[in-house]
Write a structure and sequence with these properties.
Helix content: over 70%
Structural class: mainly alpha
Strand order of the largest sheet: 1-2
Largest sheet: 2 strands, antiparallel
Distance between the termini: 9 Å
Strand content: under 5%
Order of helices and strands: EEHH
Number of helices: 2
Shape: rod-shaped
Length: 174
């Protein structure tokens, strides 16, 4: 028989070895469950932080790529406007044999516009490919984190089961 003192009211009461072992087991299990809960919260917080960081990096890279491509497109559009202006000026001044030059410039303008459209399509395809690859990377990282959480849960459950199957130490306390 053991005597225990209540920490709240201060009264002393007696418990047998089985009750004492049960109380000790409850305290250990509660602490173990609390520790598992804290670890799970930490793992989830770390997974979310890593995912947010990956998404932020992806957004930044995409924005940088978009800015670069937009600058290229603006330069091409400025070139097109310059060529259009040049063509209009020439069409006013030219006649007869000069009309052939105007037609050549029109063809050049069409080619530049076609090239610009092709470059835009290519840039968009590259961006789509990059986005898909980055999303795949994020999904893989998320999967790895989920698997780590599952492994941690499984390990914790195995520790809990092993602890439940361990012989009681209370008999050696007597």
């Amino acid at each position: 028989m053991r005597e225990l003192k209540c920490p709240h009211c201060g009264s002393v009461f007696t418990v047998d070895e089985a009750d004492y072992a049960s109380i000790v087991s409850q305290v250990k299990n509660a602490e173990f469950d609390a520790e598992i809960g804290r670890r799970m919260e930490e793992l989830e917080a770390r997974r979310k932080a890593e995912q947010e960081l990956t998404e932020a990096r992806t957004r930044k890279e995409f924005a940088e790529q978009m800015n670069g491509k937009e600058k290229e497109l603006i330069a091409k559009e400025n070139e097109i406007e310059r060529l259009k202006s040049q063509m209009e000026t020439l069409s006013v001044q030219l006649n007869g044999e000069r009309q052939l030059e105007v037609d050549r410039l029109k063809e050049q303008l069409k080619n530049i516009e076609a090239q610009k459209d092709a470059e835009r399509d290519l840039a968009l395809a590259e961006k789509e490919k990059t986005i898909t690859a980055l999303q795949s990377t994020v999904n893989q990282a998320d999967t790895r984190l989920k698997m780590a959480v599952m492994e941690e849960q499984k390990r914790a459950e195995q520790e809990l089961q092993a602890r439940d199957h361990t012989p009681s130490v209370s008999s050696s306390l007597t």
